[in-house]
Amino acid sequence: MRRLVLLWFISAFALMVVTQIVPGFHIDDGWSALKAAFIIALVNGTIGLFVAIATLPLSILTLGLFLIIVNALMLQLSAWIVEGFAIDGFWWAVAGSIVLSATNMLLRWLLVPKTRRPPET
Q1: Could you tell me the pTM of the whole model?
Q2: What keywords are assigned to this protein (predicted)?
Q3: Rounded Cα distance, 8 and 60, in Å
Q4: In whole angstroms, what separates CA 105 from the centre of its chain?
Q5: pLDDT (tens digit, 9 = 90+) per residue, 17-45?
Q6: How far apart are CA 21 and CA 39, in angstroms?
Protein backbone atom coordinates (compact mmCIF):
# COMPACT_ATOMS: atom_id res chain seq x y z
CA MET A 1 0.00 0.00 0.00
CA ARG A 2 2.87 2.34 0.82
CA ARG A 3 4.35 1.74 -2.63
CA LEU A 4 1.03 2.63 -4.30
CA VAL A 5 0.80 5.91 -2.39
CA LEU A 6 4.42 6.70 -3.26
CA LEU A 7 3.71 6.10 -6.97
CA TRP A 8 0.63 8.32 -6.74
CA PHE A 9 2.62 11.19 -5.23
CA ILE A 10 5.40 10.71 -7.79
CA SER A 11 2.85 10.91 -10.61
CA ALA A 12 1.33 14.07 -9.13
CA PHE A 13 4.77 15.65 -8.79
CA ALA A 14 5.59 14.63 -12.37
CA LEU A 15 2.42 16.43 -13.52
CA MET A 16 3.58 19.56 -11.71
CA VAL A 17 6.96 19.28 -13.46
CA VAL A 18 5.23 18.95 -16.83
CA THR A 19 3.28 22.17 -16.19
CA GLN A 20 6.61 23.96 -15.81
CA ILE A 21 8.02 22.52 -19.05
CA VAL A 22 5.02 22.34 -21.42
CA PRO A 23 3.28 25.73 -21.86
CA GLY A 24 -0.09 24.22 -22.82
CA PHE A 25 -0.38 22.16 -19.62
CA HIS A 26 -2.11 23.80 -16.63
CA ILE A 27 -2.69 22.54 -13.09
CA ASP A 28 -4.09 24.91 -10.48
CA ASP A 29 -2.53 23.45 -7.33
CA GLY A 30 -1.15 20.35 -5.65
CA TRP A 31 -4.61 19.01 -4.83
CA SER A 32 -5.58 19.19 -8.50
CA ALA A 33 -2.34 17.38 -9.37
CA LEU A 34 -3.20 14.57 -6.93
CA LYS A 35 -6.73 14.28 -8.36
CA ALA A 36 -5.38 14.35 -11.91
CA ALA A 37 -2.77 11.67 -11.16
CA PHE A 38 -5.49 9.43 -9.74
CA ILE A 39 -7.85 9.98 -12.69
CA ILE A 40 -5.03 9.48 -15.23
CA ALA A 41 -4.17 6.15 -13.61
CA LEU A 42 -7.84 5.16 -13.59
CA VAL A 43 -8.40 6.19 -17.22
CA ASN A 44 -5.19 4.50 -18.41
CA GLY A 45 -6.04 1.33 -16.51
CA THR A 46 -9.54 1.05 -17.97
CA ILE A 47 -10.34 2.93 -21.17
CA GLY A 48 -6.70 3.36 -22.17
CA LEU A 49 -6.09 -0.36 -21.92
CA PHE A 50 -8.99 -1.15 -24.26
CA VAL A 51 -7.94 1.55 -26.73
CA ALA A 52 -4.33 0.31 -26.71
CA ILE A 53 -5.48 -3.25 -27.39
CA ALA A 54 -7.90 -2.12 -30.13
CA THR A 55 -5.18 -0.10 -31.85
CA LEU A 56 -2.47 -2.75 -31.45
CA PRO A 57 -2.09 -3.37 -35.21
CA LEU A 58 -1.59 0.36 -35.81
CA SER A 59 0.86 0.53 -32.91
CA ILE A 60 2.85 -2.35 -34.37
CA LEU A 61 2.81 -0.74 -37.81
CA THR A 62 4.14 2.55 -36.39
CA LEU A 63 6.64 0.77 -34.10
CA GLY A 64 4.81 1.95 -30.99
CA LEU A 65 4.61 5.63 -31.90
CA PHE A 66 0.82 5.51 -32.09
CA LEU A 67 0.77 4.80 -28.34
CA ILE A 68 1.91 8.40 -27.83
CA ILE A 69 -1.31 9.49 -29.55
CA VAL A 70 -3.33 7.12 -27.35
CA ASN A 71 -1.63 8.52 -24.23
CA ALA A 72 -2.33 12.08 -25.38
CA LEU A 73 -6.01 11.26 -25.86
CA MET A 74 -6.19 9.70 -22.39
CA LEU A 75 -4.54 12.82 -20.93
CA GLN A 76 -7.11 15.02 -22.65
CA LEU A 77 -9.94 12.86 -21.33
CA SER A 78 -8.48 13.13 -17.82
CA ALA A 79 -8.16 16.90 -18.15
CA TRP A 80 -11.81 17.06 -19.20
CA ILE A 81 -12.81 15.09 -16.07
CA VAL A 82 -10.63 16.83 -13.45
CA GLU A 83 -11.41 20.39 -12.46
CA GLY A 84 -8.20 22.39 -12.08
CA PHE A 85 -6.37 20.44 -14.81
CA ALA A 86 -6.42 21.73 -18.39
CA ILE A 87 -4.59 21.10 -21.65
CA ASP A 88 -4.78 23.79 -24.34
CA GLY A 89 -4.91 21.45 -27.34
CA PHE A 90 -4.11 18.08 -28.82
CA TRP A 91 -0.47 18.84 -29.68
CA TRP A 92 0.14 20.13 -26.15
CA ALA A 93 -1.30 16.82 -24.94
CA VAL A 94 1.16 14.95 -27.20
CA ALA A 95 4.08 17.01 -25.88
CA GLY A 96 2.83 16.59 -22.31
CA SER A 97 2.46 12.85 -22.81
CA ILE A 98 6.09 12.52 -23.88
CA VAL A 99 7.43 14.74 -21.08
CA LEU A 100 5.18 13.09 -18.48
CA SER A 101 6.34 9.61 -19.46
CA ALA A 102 10.00 10.62 -19.30
CA THR A 103 9.55 12.46 -15.99
CA ASN A 104 7.64 9.58 -14.40
CA MET A 105 10.26 7.11 -15.56
CA LEU A 106 13.12 9.21 -14.15
CA LEU A 107 11.40 9.90 -10.81
CA ARG A 108 10.44 6.26 -10.34
CA TRP A 109 13.98 5.16 -11.13
CA LEU A 110 15.34 7.62 -8.56
CA LEU A 111 12.75 7.31 -5.77
CA VAL A 112 11.02 3.93 -5.83
CA PRO A 113 12.88 1.22 -3.93
CA LYS A 114 13.63 -1.84 -5.99
CA THR A 115 11.66 -4.92 -4.99
CA ARG A 116 13.67 -8.04 -4.40
CA ARG A 117 12.53 -11.12 -6.22
CA PRO A 118 13.09 -14.57 -4.81
CA PRO A 119 15.61 -16.64 -6.75
CA GLU A 120 14.11 -18.80 -9.45
CA THR A 121 14.47 -22.54 -9.00
Answers
A1: 0.83
A2: Membrane, Transmembrane, Transmembrane helix
A3: 30
A4: 10
A5: 999 999 999 999 989 999 999 999 999 88
A6: 21
